Amino acid sequence: MKRQLSSLDLHYLLKELSVLKDSRVDKIYQPEKNILIFSFYKSGVGKKLLKIDITGSLSLVEEKTGETLGFGMFLRKHLDNNYLYDISQIEPERILKFSFKSKDSKKNLYMELFGKGNAILCDENDIILNSLEHHEFRDRTIKPKIKYKYPVMEYNMFKLSKKDLTELLKNTKKDSLVITLATGLGLGGIYSEEICSLSDIDKKKNPKSLENKDIETIINIISKIIKKKLEPVTYYQDNKIIDFSPFKLKIYEDNELKPMKTFSETISIFYSQFIEVKETAFDRKTKDLNRIIEEQKATIEDLRKKEQEARKKGELIYNNFQLIEEILIEINKAAKKHSWKEIKAKLKGHKMIKEVNDKDKSVVVEV
């Protein structure tokens, strides 16, 4: 299964991304429209690469970077050599805020990791300088010179009260508990199923029918899962990775699992299976040049063979020049007295003259 990072995933990932704080932006790359790669450098730590796929994932990686498209060049202009002084999540949204500063200014880069995703660079007052995608929604606009406004969920699972959850379950239009938790709290399907499993409540149960004790149980479990110790794992089925999480999940207790060193590595490994190998402009140019080189090599080899053949013929003619010259003199003399048909008839069976063409008045001599 392929899924976007949930708000809960980002909550745990931020614990590892804190290593990037106070790092200097060394370089920014944009090899594809939806991919941004930040190269950070920090004294005593060295270089770290943060790969962001705005369609729903990000992680620290160790990989070669590629070319840079237009928006990446724009970010370079504004953020190169800036220092990253803070990283935060706009809870409970799937939005990360990267705060940069230089000697003269501060800037905020918002990564919206939901839907098709977006990257929005703002000044210190959150006025948009530019964004990867420009949009006009019903309740907000993403365009330069407009103050950035992010979507706000009605309920925040990180600050959820019993009153909030009771209200959500009472007013929801969804007919199952798992879907209500997934959409109403932004938990996503996996963690909503986990909460139902830990609560021993049927995930298909109508949310309006939950009793007070059920609501209290769900509140307690949500409170616990956002405070768990980070112990990332990947899950397998038939030797294929099917999911990941920042801690062990009950719903996958029958699956093979593999503990991971970092959550970032876990995410990177999971999403790497969905990466399509795409041919870049550089790859295409290299491929064309290699094709031309191979064609030129073949042409050179053909010319070399022709040269060798011509050289052999030339040497034969040179070594037998006197004999060939005498034959040509005799034939020219005969041509003054006889027709070429007569010459052809007389030379039939000659040991050196193998062919006489009476139409174009030529002979073939074998030496």
Q: First CA to last CA: what distance?
A: 78 Å
Give the full name of the CATH homologous superfamily of the largest domain.
Answer: ibrinogen binding protein from staphylococcus aureus domain
Low-confidence blocks of residues: none
Mean pLDDT: 88
Give the helices and strands as they follow along the chain: HEEEEHEEEEEEEHHHHEEEHHHHEE
Largest sheet strand order = 4-3-2-1-5-6-7-8-9
Proportion of helical residues: 25-40%
**What is the CA-atom radius of gyration, in angstroms?**
38 Å
Structural class: alpha+beta
Strand content: 15-25%
Number of helices: 10
Shape: elongated
Top CATH class of the largest domain:
Mainly Beta
Tally of strands: 16
User: How many strands, which pairing sense, and closed or not: the largest β-sheet?
Assistant: 9 strands, antiparallel
CATH third-level topology of the largest domain: ibrinogen binding protein from staphylococcus aureus fold
CATH architectural designation of the largest domain: Roll
Give a verbal description of the structure.
The chain has a 9-stranded antiparallel beta sheet with strand order 4-3-2-1-5-6-7-8-9. A 3-stranded antiparallel beta sheet has the order 13-12-14, covered by helices on one side. Helix 5 packs across helix 6. It has 4 domains: 7-142, Roll (ibrinogen binding protein from staphylococcus aureus fold); 157-272, Helicase, Ruva Protein, domain 3 (Orthogonal Bundle), CATH 1.10.8.50; 285-318; 320-367. A hairpin with a 5-residue loop joins strand 7 and strand 8 (118-123). The model has no long low-confidence stretch (mean pLDDT 88). It has helices at residues 7-17, 70-79, 162-171, 177-184, 188-199, 212-225, 263-272, 281-319, 321-337, 340-346; strands at residues 23-32, 35-42, 46-53, 57-61, 83-89, 95-101, 106-112, 118-123, 128-131, 135-136, 141-142, 233-237, 240-245, 256-259, 353-357, 362-365. The chain is elongated and about 130 Å long. It contains 10 helices and 16 strands. By secondary structure, the chain is α+β, with helices and mostly antiparallel strands. 38% of the residues lie in helices and 25% in strands.
